[in-house]
Amino acid sequence: MTYDPTKPDANESLKVSQSPIKDNYADAQTAFSVNHGAFAGPSSGLHIVATFVEQIGHQTSAKGERVLYVTPYSTPVTPLDELWISRVNTTTYTPITSKGFSSNVAWTFLPTGELLKYGQKTWTGPGSSNIPLNEVNQPTFSEIYWAQTTSNNSKNLISIINISTTGLSLSGNSTGSLTASWCVLGKGVS
Amino acid sequence: MDWNDTPKAPDQISTTQLPIQSNFTGLPVAFEINHYGINDALKGLHKKMTLLRQADAPADATVSSNKIALYDLLSNSKDELFVKTYTGQRDFTALPNILSRGLASGVVIKIGSSTFSSVPASGISQPITFNEEFAATPHAILLSVVMTSGFRNTAPQYIKVAYSAADEKGFQLNAATNTGTQTGITIQYMALGV
To answer: What range does the domain containing B138 cover?
Structure first.
């Protein structure tokens, strides 16, 4: 049955209202036990698991709140339901469970909202190679905080010669195949 | 308190009033654990979320396509927060251990350092083995290794650092000076993958 807060009626005798009262109790216990320890048990009120059901659109948060919720992240090629954090500034939403890869770039978000992009790049030296940081179907940077690169060969001197929110340029001084790992941390736009 | 299976149909209210009231009293007590009270303006909202350790991850059937589940499992003798999504194979620890820091997305950052007692110009190499391997599935291996170039102690020498033979188990850390020998060189590294 459905929980009925109007029961018992004032003019009902107990033998009439006993059944809806008990039904209400049963429904309350059932609802209470979803994701939580059973009412009368030692874990009463504590969470067994926290299951988040997909919501339509972003969930706002008021001052003093952090809100966790699930809604699809539409940027990747295949949008998936992701767990998001909403902060006081309700225009800031971070899909903390999202990640992705292309042939050039891997990416993920930190729970604080920073975007982390990283990967390995191979090109022919001497010379530079550009790594796009604004590929479609990926989140982008609005600001770059930090970047680093390292060669896979100590004979090759690899360095970052340019970086912006749209791309990273690596340069090497050796002839032939150059490979370097790289990592960029910045303010993400989800 | 225990839940009272009351009232019974033939009960008099004088008999069942107390257990009914006891049930009513018990409900908000349990309701208020982790949540704002039943009479609070914020009732139902969480003050915090305490997750109890589970023996196993939630069954796949309980995490359908429109759901994500958070839960606590024992991992390496520590309680860790896990997230499970419908896409499967995405159970992971979302809290860090010492040398392998998992992000909520499943991306893992492994950090560490290694010290060479002496680095010559001809170069030196030593293996780095991760305390836990990266997964060995497509796009899930080690995807990036970045390192500092080390601290030089004699100008104008500098130290070149590089990696080689990187895979899900570890990599080879290589160092060389441009000239002469440097001693006691510590290289910090960070490896990223899934």
So the answer is: 109-193
